[in-house]
Amino acid sequence: MSNVFELEHVYKTYKNDGKEFTALKDVSLSIKEGEIFGIIGMSGAGKSTLVRTLNRLEEISEGSVKYYDKELKDLKAKELREVRHSISMIFQSFNLLNQRTVITNVEQPLRIAGVSRKERKEKAREMLKVVGLEDKENSFPARLSGGQKQRVAIARALAASPKVLLCDEATSALDPKITGEILDLLKQINEERKITIIIITHEMSVIEKICDRVAIIDDGELAEVGEVKEVFRNPQSEAAKKLVFPSNPFDPSDPDGRLIRIVFDGLEASEPFIANLVETTGQKVNILSANTRSVGGIGYGQMVLELPKNKEDQDTVVSFFKNNGLSVSEVNREHE
Amino acid sequence: MSDYIIQTIQKGILETLEMTFFASLLSYIIGLPLGVILYVTSKGRLLENRIVNLILGTIVNIMRSLPFLILLVLLIPFTRFVTGSSIGTVASIVPLTVGAIPIVARMVEASLCEVQPGIIEAANSMGASPLYIIIHFILPEATPSLLQGAAINVATVLGYSAMAGVIGGGGLGAIALQYGYYRYQKDVLWTTVALLVIMVMLIQGIGGLLAKKKRKV
Question: Domain B3-214 adopts which CATH fold?
Answer without folding.
Answer: MetI-like fold (1.10.3720)
